[in-house]
Specification:
The complex is a heterodimer. Chain A has 15 helices and 2 strands. Chain A is mainly alpha-helical. Chain A is globular. The chains are: A mainly alpha, B alpha/beta. Chains A and B meet through helix 8 and helix 9 of A and helix 2, helix 3 and helix 5 of B.
């Protein structure tokens, strides 16, 4: 199946089949929106992790900054929601510039440094009471608007908005990956000196990946703020936004474009629909076991494993 | 002048790897850089290509200060470098390796030049193969040269690219290098242990020993220099 057909099938499934199948079930569509929210961060995280070669434990910082920027612009500045969400992405991108000194670090040192930045942003949001409302947070954040008769403030409307953000993020990931920049970024992981001596400015490329990743995460954070209409620092900058995204991306296969999204949907929905009813307390333990098993038996993640199985299945058919 | 090195010194703590080395190259020059193991040849290459920063001294390339220039900018200025141990860019095909080099060093992907390089280095049949896992040693060495050529260099620095090749492979590769030089008219700086190779390829040779330049001149001249002979034999000159 060609990539165009696969993409068209995916879009038709996501934009038509899913709403037709479960659009009227607000509980299920709410769960899918939550899964897509994590999926959006996971795609952004994978873009930095796979192409930039940097493992970030601090994406909650960009999620939180995006959420607060959009909430404040709409609440205090009277901005329309969608332009505010775009500016929120830019705000998160600008916030990522503050984390750039961490780019000098590698491996776990970078991961820990950026985790510290997330904590700094949380403390700032807590302490800047006149602007952010402090620990009490922001209430009555404007909901997603009604445009041309489409109510994006509804559960189903929210689904279309977050789906579009995630699809756009995946398209950006795909385009960057297949460009010369993507090739250079991939090459940098195991042969940084070899890429630098042919003219690649590795620091600038990594910085760009951080900015793009932060922008996407900020947009997702902004969406979430308008979807739930409430914000507080401990929620907006919670570590779960990072950890769930990392688990999803690794489980799904962060070196593929679709892996992080598939990982998020599988991890979150299976957890909520299957494990939580059986184990109301500590159901995440099962996820931990599943992730461990995935790393042991298919380190590339779910999507590469499925693709390998499919190609093995198709092999004899082609031969025949 | 293409390259001017003036008193280049590279020290790692108390160890002087390269000490007060001065020489220059004009455009189109071919220079052999020889010396026993540990003489400082690769460190000098690293200093010119930017992988280490000289402790002292001046380096200029086409009149521009090299010492303050970042590594990627040196490639863009026209310095191409092939490593002794091939360093293919992982996860990329042979052609993609050349595309990255072309794009980032020159600002555009010069497809015609890439195909020309693939043809010249006899890598056409492996153009779409994985560069890190699918190439024989000779092909890896060829790709190393190819990446440097794709940057459109004015100076090509080759660090023992013939090492590990058997005699026939070495001769074929030397022939290819001569073709490369003729085709692109670039200057070559070559590190090589094999005296025959150096004598054939390089009209001028610089000899290093313990980081110091001990002789410079034609191959005949330097390989008969008593100090050079001593440096290789560790004893008295014949």
């Amino acid at each position: 199946m060609s990539n165009v057909i696969k993409t068209a099938a995916f879009l038709a499934f996501a934009y038509i089949a899913v709403p037709l199948a479960v659009g009227s079930n607000t509980y299920v569509i709410g769960l899918i929106v939550a899964a897509l929210t994590i999926g959006g961060i996971a795609v952004a995280w994978a873009l930095l992790g796979n192409l930039g070669g940097m493992v970030s434990f601090g994406h909650a910082a960009f999620f939180g900054v995006g959420a607060y920027v959009s909430a404040l612009l709409t609440l205090r500045g009277g901005w329309p929601v969608f332009p505010a969400m775009l500016v929120a992405g830019l705000g998160a991108a600008v916030a990522s510039v503050a984390t750039m000194p961490a780019l000098r670090l590698r491996g776990p040192y970078f991961a820990l440094a950026i985790l510290a930045y997330a904590e700094i942003f949380r403390i700032l949001a807590t302490e800047l009471k006149p602007v952010t409302g402090g620990a009490a947070g922001l209430l009555s954040i404007p909901r997603l608007p009604n445009v041309l008769g489409l109510d994006f403030g509804s559960k189903l409307g929210g689904y279309f908005v977050i789906l579009t953000i995630v699809v756009a993020a995946m398209a950006a990931y795909h385009l960057i990956r297949r460009s010369a920049y993507g090739l250079a970024l991939k090459a940098m992981h195991d042969s940084e000196d070899a890429t630098r001596v042919v003219g690649v400015n590795s620091t600038v490329l990594k910085a760009w990946m951080l900015v793009v990743s932060a922008f996407i995460t900020g947009m997702v954070g902004a969406f979430n703020a308008h979807y739930i209409n409430f914000l507080e620092p401990d929620y907006a900058f919670a570590g779960q936004w990072t950890t769930l995204a990392i688990v999803s991306a690794i489980f799904g296969g962060y070196r593929t474009v679709t892996g992080p999204l598939v990982g998020a949907v599988v991890v979150y929905l299976v957890d909520q629909l299957a494990f939580k009813p059986i184990l109301p307390q500590g159901h995440q333990i099962v996820l931990g076991v599943l992730l461990g098993a995935m790393i042991l038996f298919s380190p590339g993640g779910l999507m590469p494993m499925l693709m390998a199985k499919l190609s093995r299945k198709e092999g004899p058919a082609h031969a025949a | 002048m293409l390259l001017e090195l003036d008193g280049i010194t590279v020290a790692f703590g108390g160890l002087i790897a390269v000490g007060d080395v001065t020489f220059s190259m004009a455009e189109g020059d071919v220079l052999g850089l020889v010396g026993p193991n540990g003489a400082g040849k690769t460190t000098l290459f690293n200093a010119v290509s930017g992988l280490v920063r000289p402790t002292r001294g001046k380096a200029r390339f086409l009149g521009r200060d090299l010492v303050a220039m970042p590594i990627h900018a040196r490639a863009r200025a026209g310095i191409g470098r092939a490593f002794q141990v091939p360093q293919p860019m992982h996860e990329l095909t042979v052609r993609e390796n050349l595309m990255v080099a072309s794009r980032f060093a020159t600002g555009r992907i010069d497809k015609q030049r890439i195909e020309e390089i693939l043809d010249l280095l006899k890598l056409g049949h492996k153009a779409d193969a994985d560069a890190a896992t699918s190439l024989a040693l000779t092909e890896q060495k060829a790709l190393e040269v190819g990446k440097a050529l794709a940057t459109n260099p004015k100076l090509l620095m080759l660090d023992e690219v013939l090492a590990g090749l058997e005699t026939a492979g070495k001769r074929a590769f030397m022939h290819t290098l001569s073709e490369v030089r003729q085709r692109y008219g670039l200057a070559l700086m070559i590190i090589e242990h094999d005296i025959e190779t150096i004598t054939r390829l390089c009209p001028r040779v610089v000899v290093l020993n313990f980081g110091r330049l001990i002789a410079e001149g034609s191959p005949d001249h330097v390989f008969n220099d008593p100090e050079v002979i001593r440096s290789y034999t560790g004893g008295e000159a014949a």
